[in-house]
Specification:
The chain has 10 helices and 14 strands. By secondary structure, it is an alpha/beta fold. It has a 12-stranded mixed sheet.
Length: 332
C-alpha cells in the first residue's frame, strides 16, 4: 500500500479521522433519532461488504487516515463485525480503531472485538433511570447496556466513553448522576449537545442545553479542572479537582462548533463519502468500485469530496439547511 499525499480540504484542514457506518439498521428507536416504527432499511446489496469497506479504508489510510471509528445505525447488529475489525487492523497495526454502539449487544461481543484488534468503545446512554431510558429508546434495556459497558471495560476496550445527548427538560436533570458515574467508575462521560439530525424534524434550539451550562451545573457540585482536548477529539475535557477518577467532556456542536479544527470524513453504509455530518451532498464510491475503478480513481473521488468540505455547518444561521438523511442513515 503506497503512501499518498495527505487529505487537505479547501480550508487547509488535514483530514485524518474516518467514520465508517457499517449499517443503517438499529435495534433501538431513540425518540430524538427515528420514529417508533423505524425507517426503511437499505437492502443488503446496497450495503458495502467487508471487503469493500476494507478497500476504501485502505485508500484512506494510504492518504494519512490514522483513526477509524465504526458506526451505524447500530454497528453490532452487523453479523461477524469482529471479522471486519481484523481486516482493518491488518491494514496498519498503528491505526486507532474504535466503535460507537448503543451497548445492547456489547456484553456478548466485546471479548471477540478486543481479540480482533478493536482499541476502545463509546457507548450511547442517555439516562441512568430505567423508566426514562425506556421512554427515550423504546427499549427496556438499561441493565443490559450497563452490563455491556462493564464487560467492555473488563475486556480492555478503554478509555471507555459514555456518550450522553443532553436535551432540555428530558434528561438534563441527570447531569450530576452522570458525573458521579464518571467519578465512581473511571469512565469518560461526554455530554453532547442535541443536534438537528432527527428523522422526524422535531429538533428546535430551545431543546439544546449549552455546553457551558452543562459544565457550570456539574462544577457547582463536583468542582472541575480543565484538561483541554485530546488530538482530534471534539470534546473539551475536564477532570475532577479532588482527584477522583474519570473525566467529563462536552461536545458543544451547536453553540460552540469545532468546525475550524474538524479532521473528519465519513463513509455511509451504502458507500457515499461525506466531508461533513451536515453535508447536503455526497460522493458515491460504491458504484465506481463495483464498476471496476482502481484505487487511484477512488482516491480522486475522495479528494474531490474532501476539497469541497464546508468551512462549517451553520446551525442556527438563516441559511442552514438540514441534511436529507438522519443520523442513523449517515452514521454517528
Amino acid at each position: 500500500m503506497r503512501n499518498r499525499p495527505p487529505l487537505i480540504d479547501g480550508w487547509g484542514r488535514t483530514v485524518d479521522d474516518l467514520r465508517v457506518s457499517v449499517t443503517d439498521k438499529c435495534n433501538f428507536r431513540c425518540t430524538y433519532c427515528m420514529p417508533p416504527q423505524g425507517l426503511p432499511w437499505l437492502p443488503k446489496d446496497a450495503i458495502l461488504t467487508f471487503e469493500e469497506i476494507t478497500r476504501v479504508a485502505a485508500v484512506f489510510v494510504s492518504c494519512g487516515i490514522r483513526s477509524i471509528k465504526l458506526t451505524g445505525g447500530e454497528p453490532l447488529v452487523r453479523r461477524d463485525l469482529h471479522v471486519l475489525i481484523r481486516m482493518l487492523r491488518d491494514l496498519d497495526a498503528g491505526l486507532d480503531i474504535s466503535l460507537t454502539t448503543n451497548g445492547y449487544l456489547l456484553a456478548e461481543q466485546a471479548p471477540a472485538l478486543a481479540d480482533a484488534g478493536l482499541d476502545r468503545v463509546s457507548v450511547s446512554c442517555d439516562s441512568l433511570l430505567r423508566h426514562r431510558f425506556t421512554e427515550l429508546t423504546l427499549r427496556d434495556a438499561l441493565a443490559q447496556v450497563r452490563r455491556g459497558i462493564r464487560v467492555a471495560a473488563a475486556a480492555g476496550l478503554t478509555p471507555l466513553k459514555v456518550n450522553v445527548v443532553v436535551m432540555r427538560n428530558r434528561n438534563d436533570d441527570e447531569l450530576i448522576e452522570f458525573a458521579r458515574l464518571a467519578r465512581d467508575t473511571g469512565y469518560d462521560v461526554r455530554f453532547i449537545e442535541y443536534m438537528p439530525l432527527d428523522a422526524q424534524g422535531a429538533w428546535s434550539s430551545d431543546q439544546v442545553v449549552p455546553g457551558v451550562e452543562i459544565v457550570e451545573r456539574i462544577d457547582a457540585v463536583f468542582p472541575l479542572r480543565a484538561a483541554g482536548r485530546r488530538d482530534g477529539d471534539p470534546a473539551t475535557r475536564f477532570v475532577f479537582a479532588d482527584g477522583a477518577g474519570g473525566s467529563i467532556g462536552v461536545i458543544p456542536s451547536v453553540t460552540e462548533p469545532f468546525c475550524s479544527s474538524c479532521n473528519r470524513v465519513r463513509v455511509t453504509a451504502d458507500g457515499n463519502v461525506r466531508a461533513c455530518l451536515f453535508s447536503v451532498d455526497e460522493s458515491d464510491v460504491k458504484r465506481p468500485m463495483r464498476a471496476g475503478a482502481d484505487d487511484d480513481e477512488l482516491e480522486e473521488l475522495i479528494r474531490d469530496c474532501v476539497a469541497r468540505k464546508w468551512a462549517g455547518h451553520r446551525i442556527g444561521q438563516a441559511d442552514f439547511v438540514r441534511p436529507s438523511r438522519s443520523m442513523s442513515m449517515i452514521g454517528g
